[in-house]
Structures are given as structure tokens and as C-alpha cells.
Amino acid sequence: MTTATTTAGNLLITGAQLADGTTTDLYVTEAGTLADPADTPAGVQRFDAAGLLALPGLVDLHTHLRQPGREDAETVESGTAAAARGGFTCVHAMANLTPVTDTAEAAEYVQSLGERDGHCEVRVIGAVTKGLASEELAELGRMADSAAGVRVFSDDGKCVSDSLLMRRALTYIKTFNGVIAQHSQDTRLAGASACCHESEWSAQLGLPGWPAQAESIIIARDVQLAELTDSRIHVCHVSTAEGVEVVRWAKKRGIKVTAEVTPHHLLLDTPLVAGYDTTFKVNPPLRTNEHLEAVREALADGTIDIVGTDHAPHARQDKDHPFDVALPGMIGLEQALSVVMEVMVNTGRMDWPTLVQRMSVKPSEIGQVATQGRPLRPGEPANLVLVDANARAVVDAEASRSRGRNNPYHGRELPDPVVATLWRGAVTYQR
Amino acid sequence: MRHLLSCADLDLTSATAILDLAEEMQQVQSRPVKKLPALRGRTIVNIFFEDSTRTRTSFEIAGKWLSADTINVSAKGSSVSKGESLRDTMLTLDAMGVDAFVIRHSSSGAAAQVASWVRAQVVNAGDGQHEHPTQALLDAYTMRQHFRRIGAEGFAGKRIAIVGDLLHSRVVRSNVLLQRILGGEVVLVAPPTLLPTGVESWGCEVSNSLDAVLDSCDIVMMLRVQRERMAGGFFPTEREYTETYGLTPERLAAMKPTAAICHPGPMNRGVEISSAAADAANSLVLEQVAAGVAIRMSVLYHLLGSDEGAMH
Amino acid sequence: MADPATNTPTPPFDSRVVADATEFARALTRMAHEILEANHGADNLILLGIPTRGVQLSQRLAALIADIEDTPVRQGELDITMYRDDLRANPTRNPGRTSIPGSIDDAVVVLVDDVLHSGRTIGAAFDALRDLGRPKAVRLAVLVDRGHRQLPIAADTVGRTIQAAADERVAVLVSELDGHDAITITRTVKEA
Lengths: 431, 312, 192
Description:
The complex is a heterotrimer of chains A (431), B (312) and C (192). By secondary structure, chain B is of the alpha/beta class. Chain B folds into two domains: 7-131 and 291-304, Rossmann fold (3-Layer(aba) Sandwich), CATH 3.40.50; 133-288, Rossmann fold. Chain B contains 13 helices and nine strands. In chain B, the strands form two sheets. In chain B, strands 7-6-5-8-9 form a five-stranded parallel β-sheet. In chain B, strands 2-1-3-4 form a four-stranded parallel β-sheet, with helices on both faces. In chain B, α5 (110-117) links the parallel β3 (100-105) and β4. The longest helix of chain B has 20 residues, at 285-304. Chain B is globular, with a radius of gyration of 19 Å. Chain C has helices at residues 21-39, 53-69, 120-132, 175-178, and strands at residues 2-3, 8-9, 15-19, 45-49, 74-77, 108-116, 137-145, 157-161, 168-173, 182-187. Chain C is globular. Classes of the chains: A alpha/beta (431), B alpha/beta (312), C alpha/beta (192).
């Protein structure tokens, strides 16, 4: 159903421009690494990349691949095909699978699916608590020591609400330099039915409100626990101005905190839910413009370190319910770069080197993925994406490589930058 | 007008036309043969995912008196328990050739979602905490009758206090939208914990004191306060609520002599409304119930009377 | 073209007056006498005007009859919108008022309309009456009979018989709504 990942290498990419503006040829060897173009043997396949940008392959720290458990919604194969289409060469599979990735065995299984079916590197995120139940710690150490080498732990979709449990988890992961990626949601202020940014909109639409402070309160607690334990916390999908302010404060204090924003929280705003189209139901919810401006500014100035897609495919039947009942989440791998370009680059808020930091280098650092987010120079792995900065297209949900059709950008004209993606030297996507 | 999902779907012409026709429809209630042939051959399905005997019955009677074939489907919990999505449930019924759905659902926006899925026309009979447009129309109808009795015409300059749980009320949203069209001045009165976020933007006066506004209002509409809200910490005790926001005999006496009382029901006597107020000569509560059928006949006629589904 | 709510032809179509106010009044007076004559007096009579202009005509006839007999006569309005057989095919009409002065049971009901054409309005009026009670007899009084009937219906009392072509519109104007009384014929298709 998707472009098969071809065998690696022996390809000369000519005339590509790097993020820093310099133009270069890139020789991709059969071993899947970059080598000096001067050493290119005669007769290799050539790819004319004049006018295109070559960027390190994008890395997503926040991906829901749904396998095992909900293969009708997504599989490792379909999800990573979508990732390749979006220019990604590495994704991090969130732990909220069935079974939950809360043991070494479960982590190794997901890892093996990635190795078998992946169109990009699949790194495994382990659960913080058993069954995501926020009661007992999951097997953090065994997952870290497993073949999956888990370093990022998250109960994403659910918040680790118990402060004491969170403190213990932060303390425990220090021994293997782990990081906890928290879904920040005070579940008393924003309960299970909360589905619309608390605002005039939630009041007018009669939808249970999700106040900004339900996010910032948990971030404030967690950064202080990170300070207390001298451990690392990563804040998933920061969506509010208040959340940004807390992260900014914590960074100023020297706390080991990193933060992420999703493409949809950069572009899409609360009024989109006015038609009760459940495609736009996501958790945390779409925010109002002042919050969008705050997260854009924070992504530009580095308060927010990375873009994470929170790619969350759902089967149609899980979305065809009333708004407060339908499952939250939207897909995002294929349009992540499009949205970041539209909101950040094309508006002059961010340059290409910064985009590379936010979408490739920093996520690799947080996830401790040695082979990703590397500069495009001889000796480095050939993980790269070729970008046409001027191409635009109207998004068609049906054209997605993901099994999900919950694409919030459907019908919207956006940049359509990805011309080709190479992972370990092999073409995983080509237009 | 194809659907009636929200009072925002109305304008002054259509709202007035619905109220005017309801007056004619109310006459039918006193006829020997309570039957008009206007909707002969039309099939209306009343699908209620949430119980409401009052609303369902009045829609059923309204449809039958207009000669439509009305079918009641009690769908409470049924589809979800079978794992069927709302969309599948509605498409299944739609495929049977239904002309209109009257839908009640506990989720906000359900009627709008259904309207986007089905061929049939849709009337919102209450969706979650969002809207209940026919209730607002029958409230306006009853108020208009009252204003006429006291020699006034129209809503301009009339102050309508809506008192109680505004946060969870679909009735208040519909009434605010409808009065924005009809010209009445709505005063919202509630404990601060039961006021919706951003209520300041609704263009209404907002007060936390019933006593402060009571003597200036022409209509005092009391909303039901559910006991479970107390457990949710929205207010301390029933007694405190009643003392502060209840329409007690003392407050009844403090109302303008020409003012009237409304309540969309069901009433919690002794909590938000005293029996003295509920049964007072200026209580319009039973008139509201009586107007329910006439308003729903008028709405069904305006939606379904013509194949064009258009009102002028 | 005409505004269906007022039945008033809109310019620029040619319109000619076939009866002015004097002839109009003369016809109504004769109709009042005919109704009385047929009914042997005003006893037990109810005049029901069919909106829109049947209502004004019915009010005028009732006044004339009351004048002639020196006794008030019951008069009301019977809206037939919901009984129309073309209800669904047209844009939604806002129905007019129905107001019946007392019970019609065992009364002699005289339906009053402005123009009798296809007969479908009167057919619908019979259905409407059936839902209101059981009159002893139903009579029909129209100011203009213009022919082209589609149902087996005939008027008992006719003010004026006019031979109008199918593409012509016959309109009754009443001073209450239109400023003056007249019967006009308008060509509905403008010729080149």
C-alpha cells in the first residue's frame, strides 16, 4: 500500500542547499551513511536537488502508532509510512497501547515491530505507571535495560496525578538518565469530559471546559519536583500561555525541563470546534489565539524546545460519537513540517537552522537517539529529508498514508514541502 | 429554514412567524377535531437519548395534530451499549425514509452533528448544556401573552431575569439568543460558581444578587437547581441557595406588580421556587406547559410544511 | 407576477379595471340581497371570509346584511392554508387567522372569497369546515367568477362573471388593504 523502502544508498544528491544556506552534493553510500562526494564512484544514481533544501531527517518524540491493540486505527507500518511522507526518520511510539508498554517484554515487542515494519526508526516510550493507572511504577529499569533501551517514559493521554508517585518516578529514572514526558492535566480542574478550551467558546457551545490552568498547575508542580529530585522532566504538548510562562520560569531557574508543542496547537484555534466536528477534538484542546501566539513565540525563542506531533489516529467509529464522548486526537505526522513552515518559517518567526533544532536535533537529544538529528556531513548516518520550500497543496485526508482519517488540515492549503525522505540511506518516501 | 438547531438559526421574521402561528395552533387545542392536515404523509421520529416526558409528549402531540406520522424512539443508552456510534444509529433510521428527527441528547452539539449526517430535517429538542430552542420559543410565547394582558406590546424595554444554574442550563443559552432577536433585556442572576465562563460577552447584565434586580424585572424566570450540583461544591447548602437565590414568598412580594414568573420545569419546590411563587396568580408555569404543543406545532409546520424546507 | 401575500400585481404589467368602486359596491349589495333571499332571512347565518380578501368582503357583506335586516349577523374568518393540496409544493406560507364566531354546527355557513377560479381553495375550505363541525348547509359567495374550474364547484352567489384568459390574473382590490375598491385584469406574461 505504500512505497516500499528501497535498498540503501549509492546515490548522489546534487546541488542541495543545507539549512545554513550553503549548497552541497551529498553522497549516500550503500552502508546508509554520508560520504565525501569527491569519492562518488562512477555510474551511481544521481538525484538533482537543485532548488531543494536538505535537512536532517525529522524526529518525533510523540507518536501514537496504535500497534499492538488497535491495528484498525494504525499500524507500525502505516504510521511510519505517514512519518516518512512527512519527512521523519524517527518516531517515538507512545506507551498507551494494548497491552500498555509497561514491561521490558512489551517494549521489546514494539521495538521488534519497528524493526520489521518501520519506514523509519521506531523508538519505544515506556509507561511511567503500570497500566497507566497512576498507582504503581511500571518496570522502568527493566525497560531501560531491555533491547528497546527505553529512555523516555510517559503515561501520555493520562497525567501522573499523584505527586508522590511522580516524585518517585523522577528519582528512579535518574540512574539510567531517563526522562519523564508528562501529559499535564489536573484531572479535577479538567476532568474526563473536559473537551473544549474553557472560554466564551466552551460556554457558548455548552461543552465542558478545560481551563489553561489545569495544564500550568501540573507543569508548575512537575518542574518543582524535577528540581527537588534533580531529574529530567519533559512537558508534552504545551498549549497555553500560562504553561509557557511556567516553563520559562523553570528554565531560568536552571531546572532540567524541556517542552514540546504540537503542530495543531500552533495553527488551529478553539472556534474550529464550533461545528462539533470531532476531528477537532484533541486533548489538550485547541486553544484561543492568545495562547497560539504564546506557544509560537516560545517555540521561536527556545522556551519550547521541540515540535512533537501527538499523531493520534482513530478509527472512524471512535470519532462518530457526540463531541464529549468521541475519542480525542488528530493525526499530524504528514503535515507537521507543513504547519511549522506556515506558522513559523513563512512568517519570519524562525529560520531553517532553528527549525532543524526544534524538529530534529533537540528531539534526538531528549530521546537520546544517537543516530538521529545529526548534521549532514560525511561520516554521519544518511537520515535526511529533501524539501521544496515553495510547493503548496490542499490537504486531502483520503490521501493519507496513515490509517487515520481524522486529519484536521483536510481541505486547507498548506506548504507541501517533502520531496523525498531517506532513512539509513534508503528512500522511504519520494514524491 | 432546514433545521432548528439553535435560536441563532432564527431571525426576527422567522421567530415572529413561529410565535404568531403558535397562537393559531393554540386554538386547535380547543376544537372538537384536533387535527390539521398540513403534515399528512410526513414521518417524524422523536428520538430521545435522554428522558424527557414533557418535551417528548408535546412534540408527539404536535406532530399528530398536524397529521404527521410520529414515532417515538427511546434510545437512552441503547446504541452506546451495543457499541453502535451515534452516526450509525441515525443513518439507520434515516435510511428508513424519515422526514424529520426531533432529537434530545445529553451531549452538547449532538443535534448539529446529526443534521450534518442525515438527509432528514432536524429539530433540536435539547442537546446537553447547549441549547433548547423550542423551550425558549415557548417561553417567549408565554411572556408575549403576558405582556399583552398587561397592555404592553413586544419585548422592547422588558427586563427578563433568568435565575439559577446558568452554567449547566441549555435553556438560558437559547433564551439569551432569542431575546437578542426579539429585543428583550436579559438579566442573568446566579451564584458566581454557576455563571458560565465569559458570560460578560453575552451582552446581558449579570448579577450575583437577585434582590438587587428583582424589583426592576418584568419576568422572573427561575431555573431548576439540581441537588447534585451541591455535592459538586457549586454552592454550600440548599438552605443557603434558597435564602440567596430562591423565589421566596418575600421576594414574590417584592416583584413589580405587573411582573410574572416563569419556570421551564420540573420545579424543585422549596429550593429555587417557593410554592407561594409557583402557584401565584402571576405564575406562568402552567401556561408555559400549555404553549409547548402550540409552539412545537408551529415549528414543525414551518420546517416541514413545504418541500422546500424554507421559510419566508 | 404578484406578491402572493397581497395578490397585488406589480408593475410593469398592463392592468385594466373591469369594475370601479361604484360597480364593486353595487355587486356587493346585490350579493347581500341574494344571500338573504336564498336563506329566507339572516337567521342562523354565519359568513366566513377566506383570507386574504375574502375576509374584507365577508365583513362588508355582513354589514350590508345587518343593515338590510336590522340585525347583527355572525361573521368570521376561515384560513385554509394547511388544507391546500399544493402546500408542500410551494414555499412555506404563514397561515392566516381562523376565527369562528361560535359553533358552526347546524348553522348555514356562507363561504366568502374574492375570486373563484380552479375551485381548489373552496375544496380545501370544505375540509377545513369538516374539522370545525357540521353545518346544516354550506353556500358559496364570490365577488368574481372567472371560470377555468378544476373541481365540480359552483358559487351560489356571484358578483361578477368575467371571461379571462388563462394567462390573465383577475384581482380584487379592497380599500382596507389596497386603498380603493376595484376589480382588475392583468396580463401576467408581458408581450414583446
